[in-house]
Design a protein that fits this description.
- The chain is mainly alpha-helical and about 210 residues long.
- The chain has a domain at about 150-205.
- About 85% of the residues lie in helices and about 0% in strands.
- Helix 5 runs antiparallel to helix 6 (about 120-150) and helix 7 (about 150-165) runs antiparallel to helix 8.
- The chain is elongated.
Length: about 210
């Protein structure tokens, strides 16, 4: 015997919020008020029970809800990306918009020369490549701005002073304190060098 799909609360909630469900209940309520009878309310209860027992468990309905969720996430992602692009400097915005225009030209030319109304999946990957470029540009900007906020020479000078203090320490306790300080400064300097390396790597990818 075939088992009925288990009703997920997510789909149940979505079914409750459907306009057709709302207006259906409202229609029964109006009928009950107009006829001064509880029969429409009883019919509404039966209809609602049947509706909630079948629609949320429907494979077709679940596909519709899943598509809605994906569309909402896509629109949210697009909104956030557009807001991020607005924070770029004019030159970066120009580069992003040019690639977006170029991508659209490729799509338009494909439809024009093939007579197709749909863009094949392998060509739609250009959307993802464009998004990847925008994300990479954002990472580059963030890292470069962080790099500018760090005074490497000041850290290097502090490390040199700490190393001298270790050599001139009067006792073991003072030496241990300076050694701990030197280790912290070395880690900061190493982090700076790694950040600098990653920025140069991203710059190479953006060229």
């Amino acid at each position: 015997m075939t088992q009925r799909p288990k009703i997920d609360t997510q789909y149940l909630v979505e079914a409750l919020k459907e306009p057709v469900n709302f207006w259906g209940i409202a229609g029964f309520a109006v009928a009950a008020a107009y006829t001064q009878s509880i029969i429409p309310l009883g019919a509404a209860l039966v209809a609602e029970s049947l509706y909630l027992a079948t629609v949320p468990a429907s494979t077709l309905y679940r596909k519709v809800i899943d598509k809605r969720a994906k569309d909402r996430l896509r629109k949210l992602r697009e909104y956030r990306r557009e807001a991020m692009i607005k924070s770029f400097d004019p030159r970066e915005i120009e580069a992003v918009n040019y690639l977006k225009w170029l991508k659209q030209q490729i799509y338009d030319n494909y439809k024009k020369f093939t007579g197709s109304r749909e863009i094949p999946a392998n060509l739609q990957t250009l959307d993802q490549r464009w998004e990847d470029f925008v994300d990479l540009l954002d990472v580059y900007r963030r890292r470069k701005n962080h790099l500018r906020s760090i005074n490497r020479q000041a850290v290097q000078n502090q490390l040199t002073q700490a190393e001298r203090a270790i050599e001139n320490a009067l006792d073991d306790r003072a030496r241990r304190v300076q050694q701990a300080n030197a280790e912290i400064l070395k880690r900061r300097l190493a982090a700076f060098i790694e950040l600098e390396r990653s920025v140069k790597l991203v710059e190479g990818q953006l060229q």
